[in-house]
Amino acid sequence: MGGCKSSDQVMMEKQNWPYDFALSEDFQKTEQRGCISGRLLVRDRYIIEDEDLYAASAYIGLALPGEAGSWQRECKGYQFWCQADADGSFYIKNIVTGNYNLYAWVPGFIGDYRFDATLTISSGDDIYLGDLVFEPPRDGPTMWEIGIPDRSAAEFYVPDPNPNYVNRLFINHPDRFRQYGLWERYAELYPDRDLVYTIGESNYATDWFYAQVTRRSDGDTYQPTTWQIRFSLDAVPPNSTYKFRVALASSANAELQVRFNDEARAVPHFTTGLIGRDNAIARHGIRGLYFLFSVDVRGAWLVRGTNTIYLKQPRNQSPFQGVMYDYLRLEGPCVVPAANSSPKAN
């Protein structure tokens, strides 16, 4: 009964906010605030050629003006968010007056959306934006993919904890990642070699470790790790360009170097440089600051038959340096699809 009362109380407080008992002139009452609504659609012509998809359950919000995705790093201004309905419709209310950009991200799709215009919210405004269209990054058809683009590493393999560190609250729990020391299990599972994932054979739920971390060796020293993705191509068109998308759910003082079919190459084909300080690995989290990297892959780097992508995390000063992947995708050479639009449920 206590739990029910608590839940009811939460709902009542949410409905009563913003409260009318605050006397400060700096606290705006409901009638002094504004509202905004609309519908968000997703356009990906490599999924459906002539129709837009509903941005079901999209996270849509207002934050200070900036670049797409800048709301993640913004900590000085107000932010107001909601989750869209099944048809992409959204309604954000009780917005403090001011200038904002409208941002969104959609589960199931990579990238960030930003409405082009700056929105000015005045007292009593009820602004309807109509249909907005998000075109997630896409250059060609999907050759293969690993994971689910939801800004989380929860779908990957999360090992059982060391019995000495078990938190019984999270045994048989959806948040099984909330256990101490899971990063140490990587070295136990891969003591002498690193993870190798084969497209068409491996399963990311069982074969892709939830975080690419360092490997502890003797004493308090740590080794860099290099993961491999192996895949086959029936042909590589001359002068073609593929696209490799890497979405990270978290990074902690890490670097991701990418090499194609040449692990010993002195200079990687791509590197992120040193990124991230969210410490999600050390804090038993499954997501942190989101990063999306898009790598142009020259056809000359690939071969007909078996190919290997080497993902190296070279920073190795501590056990917590590493990345959590959200989603990886290889796109084939661009094929221009048809273009028309009408909304349809996903």
Automatic annotation (TrEMBL):
SUPFAM superfamilies: Galactose-binding domain-like, Starch-binding domain-like. Pfam families: CBM-like, fn3_3. One of its GO terms (molecular function) is carbohydrate binding. Keywords: Signal. Residues 57-127, 142-330 form the Rhamnogalacturonan lyase domain. Coiled coil: none annotated. PANTHER family: RHAMNOGALACTURONAN ENDOLYASE (PTHR32018:SF1), RHAMNOGALACTURONATE LYASE FAMILY PROTEIN (PTHR32018). This is Rhamnogalacturonan endolyase.
